[in-house]
């Protein structure tokens, strides 16, 4: 009997870790109210680095030091285009009081249902609170790094340093160089060899295509729906295929990813001035992390001088 009770307790204590995520996993959906009660959809930040800093409780000593450190580095984080969200299981009122008392500038998210905390595998179910764990999510919404040993006194500076290091690694992974291309009203950093010549790994291809008109169905994977009626930042997953919508400058861009005959294609598609543009990278399924990193790194937020003409 004593052994049975101990086993049950062990299961309860580890339940929050059972779904622990790993580097390379796609980040779960995060839609939570902030300290002002406004719903925040983290998917809207596609194209930027996002940091989710889970912490146990508002206004406690360690969590206060961590939050203060992020606020102290807030302007530097904004300049580096890094969005930092604090996440815990306390309510909106607790978040607002915490922010007002400490003068916090970052967005603090309330996960009272524990849904997001559980999805990221950091819930302590015996206490109903989150562990202190920070997730680094790259611009393609995949987890690039997980810090389970957060230094609360230097958290903000550590986030800046870590993202800078991760960006350097991503650049090194893209064949150590890229080529700037103006296409569809935007500038893109594409891997060396994307427009011909050497530089791309075997089996990898890059395509830039423009077609006059709205081009319904243009660029979709096998069996993938049109995505009509889906909102900004809303991802749709179906087996090996998914899509999401985000805003880049003045354009609404649809990102799609699918596999077909053991090849993966990840693409961006948008319509500008009556022309549909598509940027796509394809390769073997085993090359998925590289393809995603390249596509995420390709986004240049300032607009290019002019789009290329349609075919």
Concise account of the structure shown:
Helices cover 25% and strands 33% of the residues. The chain has helices at 2-14, 61-72, 74-79, 92-102, 115-119, 155-173, 288-298; strands at 31-33, 39-41, 49-54, 82-88, 107-110, 123-124, 129-130, 133-137, 143-147, 178-183, 186-191, 205-212, 236-238, 241-248, 251-260, 263-272, 275-284, 299-303. It has a 6-stranded antiparallel β-sheet with strand order 12-17-16-15-14-13, covered by helices on one side. Strands 5-4-3-8-9 form a 5-stranded mixed β-sheet. A 3-stranded antiparallel β-sheet has the order 10-11-18.
CATH superfamily of the largest domain: Glutaredoxin
Major β-sheet annotation:
6 strands, antiparallel
- Going by helix content, strand content and strand pairing, the class is alpha+beta
Q: Please estimate the helix content.
A: 10-25%
Give short descriptive properties of this protein.
Glutaredoxin, Protein Transport Mog1p, Chain A, 5-stranded mixed beta sheet, 311 residues, disordered C terminus, disordered N terminus, 7 helices, 6-stranded antiparallel beta sheet, 2 domains, alpha+beta, 33% strand
Q: Can you walk through the features of this model?
A:
It is a single chain. The chain is an alpha+beta fold. It folds into two domains: 2-172, Glutaredoxin (3-Layer(aba) Sandwich); 177-303, Protein Transport Mog1p, Chain A (3-Layer(aba) Sandwich), CATH 3.40.1000. 25% of the residues lie in helices and 33% in strands. It contains seven helices and 18 strands. The strands form five sheets. A six-stranded antiparallel β-sheet has the order 12-17-16-15-14-13, covered by helices on one side. The longest helix has 19 residues, at 155-173. The chain is elongated. The chain starts with a helix and ends in an 8-residue tail after the last strand. Residues 1-18, 216-240 and 302-311 have low confidence and may be disordered.
